[in-house]
Amino acid sequence: MDTVLSLQEQKTSFTVKSKMNEHAFNQDMSVYNTDERIGMEMSNTILTNILNTDSIDNQEFTISSFLKYDKSTSSHIIRFPIIKNYPVILETIKDVVVQYCRGTAQLHQQGGDKG
Prior knowledge:
Distance between the termini: 40 Å
Helix content: 25-40%
GO molecular function: cholesterol transfer activity; low-density lipoprotein particle receptor binding
Number of strands: 6
Strand content: over 45%
Strand order of the largest sheet: 1-2-3-4-5-6
Order of helices and strands: EEEEEEH
Mean pLDDT: 79
Low-confidence stretches: none
Shape: elongated
Number of domains: 1
Radius of gyration: 19 Å
Number of helices: 1
Structural class: alpha+beta
Protein name: Apolipoprotein Bb, tandem duplicate 1
InterPro entries: Apolipoprotein_B (IPR052418)
């Protein structure tokens, strides 16, 4: 986590990284308020082979968005590039979570059988 707090600018950013076996999940978020701009940026990345049916190689899936306000020009920029594919992305995320939970439950059951 990086944070800057002063009268001229306020910024904070953090990164969360998770990994289980060969699957990784990274989340980045940044919020800032400077003399020129105020805004927020987010990015989520999943590195997994669960959706790759052709090989065991991991694939990277990234979702990002930002909201910015330029104080000097009174312009607003809102960009959500995933909006048109949103239902497909939600369904894919749901499938990944369900498969992950099923795999975790199977690991716990197998571990319980050995003890």
